[in-house]
Amino acid sequence: MNLNFSLFLFFNLLTVFSYGQNTEQEGSSYQYFNKSLTDSVPSEILIAFTDEEFLQYGVKVAYMNLKGDVIIPFGKYAYLGTDTLIHYANVIEYSKDSIYGRCISIDQNQNILYDIVKYDNGPDYFEQGLSRVLRNGKMGFSNHYGQIIIPCIYDYAWPFKNGKAKVTFTAKKVIDKQECHSTIISNEWFYINKEGNKIKE
Asked: What is the pLDDT of residue 39?
């Protein structure tokens, strides 16, 4: 089994078994950085590179500026799809007791902005300019600058569609082990707009 196939298999299994885990409250209370509007203006552009054969999911990654100076060195992160770090980068944090740790977003100063909602073998997609993110096991929404636009207070949130998102404070994950997927259920769904205000369906 070659390395490329092994990585492909690993991330497919990771997605299958982790999708939906986002509804569970994490045991720790992590500290996150809140990006202000001035923080969203990058001082420079950073480019991802690796010392392995290809820049692909799960390999060691570092970031250098356009002058070739290494700004974020090897040793802390694995690659999670961000080739160019302008406002933020999605990375896999190396864990002390395993190969991979949390999937997080960082800024150029390595401040942790939020944890990533995993979907389709990678970070959640942007829908109508917003992406679902996690802080301490709760979901909210961020923009393209890495700023939290709607606070992470929900047990579960669906992506935005037609200017609204379906959310709940009381989600439960039901796992179908036979078909390797999970379903999120709640009796208290409601809708919010892009300002985070509760609206009618």
From this structure: 85
**Please, what's the b/e burial string for 153-176 (b: 16 or more CB within 10 A of its CB; e: otherwise)?**
ebbbbbbbeeebbbbbeebebeee
Domain ranges, residue 173? 3-199
Other CB atoms closer than 10 Å to residue 69's CB: what's the count?
9
By the 8 A CB rule, do 114 and 133 touch? Answer: yes
Distance of CA 124 to the CA centre of its chain: 7
Q: What is the value of pTM for the model shown?
A: 0.82
Backbone angles phi, psi at 139, to 5 degrees: -95, 145
Q: How many domains does the chain have?
A: 1
Q: Which of 119, 113, 98, 145 is nearest to 34 (CA)?
A: 113
Three-state DSSP class for residue 14: helix
CB 181 within 8 A of CB 173: no
Q: Is the pLDDT of residue 14 over 60?
A: no
Express each pLDDT in 120-165 by its tens digit: 878 999 999 999 999 999 999 999 999 999 999 999 999 999 999 9
Q: Is the dihedral of CA 159, 23, 26, 169 positive or negative?
A: positive
User: What is the SS3 assignment for 81-139?
Assistant: CCCEECCCEEEEECCCCCCCCCEEEECCCCCEEEEECEECCEECCCECCEEEEEECCEE
